[in-house]
Amino acid sequence: MKKILLIVSGGIAAYRALDLIREIKRRGDDVTCVLTKSATQFVQPLSFGALSQNKVYMDLFDLESETNIGHIKLSRDADLIVLAPATANILAKMSYGVSDSLATSILLANNKPLLIAPSMNVKMWNNPATKENIEKLKSYGHIFVGPDEGEMACGEVGSGKMSKVEDIYKEIELLLSPGPLKGKKALVTSGPTIEPIDPVRFISNRSSGKQGHAIADRLSKLGADTHLITGPVNIPYPENVLVTEVNTAEEMLNACKESIPVDISIFAAAVSDWKASEISKNKIKKSINNQNDDEMVLTMMQNPDILKTISETNTNRPKLVVGFTLETENLIKSARSKMLNKSCDWMIANSHVQENQSVFNNDMNEVSFLTNNSEENWGLISKQCVAENLCNKIIKFFDSAA
Ligand code: C5P
After folding, report:
1. Whose CA is nearest to atom 5 of ligand 1?
2. Ligand 1 atom 2: the closest Cα is on which residue?
3. Strand partners, 203
4. Which residue, among 191, 192, 188, has the nearest Cα to 222 in the 3D structure?
5. Do domains 3-176 and 185-279+298-401 have the same CATH topology?
6. Residue from 300, 305, 343, 370 to probe ligand 1 pocket by mutation (most atoms less than 8 Å from CB)
7. Number of C-beta neighbours around residue 199 at 10 A
8. How far is CA 373 from CA 70, 334, 345, in A?
């Protein structure tokens, strides 16, 4: 029996949380409810107590629970926290670390997986402030389900309805189960590589590592034993993932070779195609020769292709090899020819870099997912969503191979 802590914030969908409690109980799990003050304007705490058969918590300064530091204990006792419905207001508070109630204090002190089911008016959902808050919360590793599209309580139509109870429960099941990728080993490359020219200079690119890190995070949450091999980035590493830090493509390749055998390999790193043919021992002087100081010629040589090397290895080829590619012209055509040339199973093609909308360091990504015989455009979605979509494909791949 698993323990779920259900936090209900004050939206019209609060009454649907009652059905969620029934579903959780029907499956034999335990649920304890925390209601925000505004939730109690929509629903009666008594209904939550009766259905959950547990005490309902509302007040941060409830003496009995606070003697035991209730807001800490409630999350420590749970296997999973579910916030449903999650209003724009509570999401904004979470994104800024506000803890002005029992619910927000639990969420701030939480150390358990958190599933969030947003519910709000379509304009609130589409408001850039809400979007920013959601992306921030996603980057902390919280899992979102929904919202769905449809007619709202206010009569407006669009995205913002809390997901169906069965869809929320499906996510709960996924988060509570050992994970559909349990027993699988995964390798993810991420970030840029940096190729030294001399002791102080290097060649690199603008890769932030956000996409590769999001994929490693999702794989690990789904139960895969995940190894992230990353070039230098300025973002936090996902939890429960083995991380190897590298600088050059050569180092990245060696780390990948050491990491195999694996079942899943995702090459999301932006590997520098070239490196300096010779790394100068000393800092190269501005004046190299006395003949032409306006020009400096740097001789470069090709780096090893990590994806191709691992994909074409004779021993221990991963069961699934996935590449990423970014092109500024003929994206799909060149992604397909790269897929062939590098012998990978799937390719994810990033839409071209537009002015002020570079995919680098951006939280959003527009990609097409290519297999030998199919092509899907996933539209402009967050990098977390790209990771989720890709991992769903991976789960299906292993399910159908079983
Ligand atoms: O740079 P390019 O478009 O060729 O990258 C396509 C894929 O190949 C990416 O998945 C990238 O991580 C991988 N790659 C690699 N080693 C290289 C160049 C690219 O693994 N030297």
Report:
1. 325
2. 325
3. 195
4. 188
5. yes
6. 305
7. 12
8. 55, 15, 11
Contact 188, 363 (CB under 8 A): no
Q: What is the distance between the alpha carbons of residues 199 and 279, in angstroms, rounded to a whole number?
A: 8
Q: What is the pLDDT of residues 282-301, one digit of tens each?
A: 999 877 655 566 788 899 99
User: Would the CA dihedral through 362, 364, 365, 366 be positive or negative?
Assistant: negative
Q: Whose CA is nearest to atom 9 of ligand 1?
A: 324
Q: Just give the CATH number of 185-279+298-401.
A: 3.40.50.10300
- Let me know: does 188 contact 242? Beta carbons within 8 Å: no
Distance CA 170, CA 385 (A): 17
Which two structure tokens, joined as six digits, stand for 196? 């030294």
- Pick the catalytic residue: 154, 256, 344, 385? 154
What is 3-176's CATH number?
Answer: 3.40.50.1950
The ligand 1 atom nearest the CA atom of 310: 20
Q: Would residue 154 show up in a list of annotated catalytic residues for this protein?
A: yes
Q: Residue 265: enclosing H or E segment and its boundaries?
A: strand 264-267
| DSSP state string for 328-348 | SSSHHHHHHHHHHHTT-SEEE
pLDDT digits (tens, 9 = 90+) for 221-275: 899 999 999 999 999 898 789 999 999 999 999 999 999 999 999 999 999 999 9
Domain ranges of the chain: 3-176, 185-279+298-401
Return the exposure string of 93-131: e unless at least 16 CB atoms fall within 10 Å of the residue's CB, then b. bbbeeebebbbbbbbeebebbbbbbbbbbbebbeeeebe
User: Which residue's CA is minimally distant from atom 21 of ligand 1?
Assistant: 305
Any residues with Cβ below 6 Å from ligand 1, and which?
189, 249, 267, 269, 271, 273, 303, 305-307, 323-325, 338, 342
